[in-house]
Design a protein that fits this description.
A hairpin with a 2-residue loop joins strand 4 and strand 5. Helix 1 packs antiparallel against helix 2, helix 2 crosses helix 3 and helix 3 crosses helix 4. The protein is of the alpha+beta class. The protein binds FE2/S2 (inorganic) cluster. The site of FE2/S2 (inorganic) cluster has 12 residues, from helix 5. Keywords: 2Fe-2S, Iron, Iron-sulfur, Metal-binding.
């Protein structure tokens, strides 16, 4: 279930912790980074690897909203459409993404390249509109540069 690379990385992480349960968050992060989401099989595999009960692994992974439990695109676009971003044209950016990639909010492109999530303020109101692509932050978005930015993500 888990690749050799993921297993090795989790084993390395575990060496930094006295209690296996304490390294659940970084271990789950490694799995999600590798697969885009955390499947039930992956949850079980992490539990087996760390010798932590499956219920504990599941409890931790479902507590934090940063972990995803269904398949998602290779790249996640989190676009803010809250007040400042809306005033500065975020809704128009949603339309552009819809027509360029055929993607609706809270959905994934057919090729699995992008998932689009509409989010609340990400603290960049002064340079709105703003978005995250995976963990990369972009602000001062325009109709022109949003596609230019996204085309860097294959
Ligand atoms: S409203 Fe979009 S960053 Fe604040």
């Amino acid at each position: 279930m888990l690749s050799e690379r993921v297993v090795n990385e989790i084993n390395q992480i575990q060496k930094r912790y006295l209690d296996a349960r304490a390294c659940l968050l970084p271990a789950l992060y490694v799995v999600q980074r590798e697969h885009g989401w955390i499947s039930p099989d992956a949850l079980e595999a992490v539990g087996d690897l760390l010798n932590v009960p499956k219920a504990t692994v599941k409890g931790v992974s479902t507590f934090y909203s940063m972990f995803r439990h269904r398949p998602i695109g290779r790249h996640v676009i989190q676009l803010c459409t809250n007040v400042a971003c809306m005033i500065m044209g975020a809704e128009r950016l949603v339309d552009i993404l819809r027509s360029r990639y055929g993607i609706e909010p809270n959905s994934t492109t057919d090729d699995g390249r992008f998932s689009l999530v509409i989010m609340e303020c990400i603290g960049a109101c002064g340079t709105a509109p703003a978005m995250l692509v995976d963990s990369d932050f972009y602000d001062n978005l325009t109709e022109e540069n949003v596609i230019e930015i996204l085309e860097r993500y294959k």
